[in-house]
């Protein structure tokens, strides 16, 4: 099982949010989107600041990036 890292992207800064072993990249993307939605709820100031959650693999290659925003709004 591959290991994926999750970072909060604020401007040019990457803040590690942890990592986990998941079956595949699709599951890592789902986790990143969930994390982005959760961050928007607990830290609403991130929603309007252009922040994102990114997923990287074990070699630090970026696989996916999603904006910090509430999914399913409006």
């Amino acid at each position: 099982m591959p290991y994926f890292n999750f970072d909060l992207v604020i401007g040019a800064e990457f803040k590690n949010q942890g990592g986990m072993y998941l079956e595949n990249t699709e599951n890592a993307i789902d986790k990143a989107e969930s994390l982005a939605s959760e961050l928007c709820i607990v830290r609403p100031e991130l929603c309007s600041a252009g922040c994102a959650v990114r997923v990287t693999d074990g070699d630090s290659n970026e696989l996916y990036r999603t904006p910090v925003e509430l999914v399913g709004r409006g």
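Residues 3-67 form one domain. The first helix runs from residue 25 to 42.
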